Amino acid sequence: MAQAHSNHGNTVAAWTTVGLIMVASFIMCIAVVITSLWVFLAGVVVVGIALVTGKLLSNAGYGVSKPADNRVTRGVR
Questions:
Q1: CA 56, 62, 68: angle at the middle one, nearest 5?
Q2: What pTM was computed for the model?
Q3: DSSP H helix total and E strand total for the chain
């Protein structure tokens, strides 16, 4: 039986989103150490930017294309 998609998210959209979220996590970790609310909120803003960027890249064709609606993807055998 064929899998619906087999690239496990290896796309430009996925890598960009994850990379930006990792940077945001680092910013938020630093904010906790230095106890700064403003730096933490900057990390939250970077998470929002990451999500919007990932969605825009996905819509621009740099993400995984949706599989066709066939018997395999609907789970019908």
A1: 105
A2: 0.75
A3: 2, 0
